[in-house]
Amino acid sequence: MPDTTPTNADWVATASTLSQALPLFQRYAGATVVIKLGGHAMGSDAAMRSFARDVVLMSHVGVNPVIVHGGGPMINEMLEKQGVVSDFVHGKRVTDAETIKVVEMVLSGLVGKRIVQAINAEGGRAIGISGKDASLMICEQTDPALGFVGTPVECNPKFLQSLNDTKTIPVIAPIGAGRNGETFNVNGDTAAGAIAAALKADRLLLLTDVAGLKDASGEVVSEMTPEAIRQMTADGVIQGGMIPKTQTALDAIDGGVRAVVILDGRVPHACLLELYTEHGAGSLIRTPR
Ligand SMILES: Nc1ncnc2c1ncn2[C@@H]1O[C@H](COP(=O)(O)OP(=O)(O)O)[C@@H](O)[C@H]1O
Ligand SMILES: CC(=O)N[C@@H](CCC(=O)OP(=O)(O)O)C(=O)O
């Protein structure tokens, strides 16, 4: 058997690599990074573990990560089991009184707690909440035709600061409270954008199932301005589920978020690649400096 015990030279090499990484990790120290984890990006347990490790590492190196999650496919699965049919209009689920109960149970219960448990298993300290907790996200009905679908009209993120003070990572389900006691179903991207704007976040990362925003020739564009997005939308290059995502990005930037990145959440360590590598990952959207 070869002796694989590390030598002093091995330890010195490792320590040297770690010390070189220090300036890199200082780049986002103190920054608030809101991460939207979509249902399609959650996938396997391995993908969830990779995501959880990224979040824990970010927290250890001084980032304030705030997670907002989706869970559309998981809601679909539960509704199907119960024989409830739901339609989507412009990417939003038509949500009746029965459906909102299932949406809240799946998002605040199953999906949120799965993420919390994954982060805690990696040594982090996560807590699962929804937009109802501490009146984080107050909503109004988006459109009577959509039922209990809400648009955030007031965000109260103050208590998120107290979580950050104790290095507790919030995992937020996109459920909002109405002023008359209603429960509202909020699109995950919309919720993440509203919370990021309320926090004036340094970055909003929208994790999805494509490498980034593609131009008319199908190439991923690594950086673009809000103006370029508007043009791509007018030209029909941005379609389907990408429309609410890019609209969220534009609204978040208008609301004071420094930059938004649309990236593939299925890629292992997507968040670390974006924050800590020279070229990042996905498509970065920000106003020209
Ligand atoms: N210009 C574009 N660039 C990239 N993806 C696009 C574009 N236009 C439309 N899409 C579609 O948008 C989808 C992402 O939206 P969606 O499926 O709603 O994501 P999620 O479930 O992660 O919220 C992509 O899978 C892609 O099919
Ligand atoms: C109003 C509305 O459509 N809400 C979404 C909330 C979950 C979500 O946004 O999930 P993804 O991010 O995985 O798509 C829904 O009911 O599916």
From TrEMBL:
InterPro entries per UniProt: AceGlu_kinase-like_sf, AcgluKinase_fam, ArgB, Asp/Glu/Uridylate_kinase, Glu/AcGlu_kinase, NAGK-C
Pfam families per the UniProt record, alphabetical: AA_kinase (PF00696)
Major localization class: cytoplasm
Pathway: Amino-acid biosynthesis; L-arginine biosynthesis; N(2)-acetyl-L-ornithine from L-glutamate: step 2/4
CC terms in the record's Gene Ontology section: cytoplasm
Record keywords: Amino-acid biosynthesis, Arginine biosynthesis, ATP-binding, Cytoplasm, Kinase, Nucleotide-binding, Transferase
Protein location: Cytoplasm
EC main group: transferase
Annotated positions for site Transition state stabilizer: K36, K245
SUPFAM superfamilies the record matches: Carbamate kinase-like (SSF53633)
Keyword ATP-binding attached: yes
Record-annotated Aspartate/glutamate/uridylate kinase domain positions: 32-263
Gene Ontology molecular function: acetylglutamate kinase activity; ATP binding
Residues reported to bind substrate: G71, G72, R93, N185
Enzyme Commission number(s): 2.7.2.8
GO biological process terms on file: L-arginine biosynthetic process via ornithine
Catalysed reaction, written as an equation: N-acetyl-L-glutamate + ATP = N-acetyl-L-glutamyl 5-phosphate + ADP
UniProt cross-references to Gene3D superfamilies, sorted A to Z: Acetylglutamate kinase-like
Function: Catalyzes the ATP-dependent phosphorylation of N-acetyl-L-glutamate.
Similarity comment: Belongs to the acetylglutamate kinase family. ArgB subfamily.
This protein's name: Acetylglutamate kinase
Record lineage: Bacteria, Pseudomonadati, Pseudomonadota, Alphaproteobacteria, Rhodobacterales
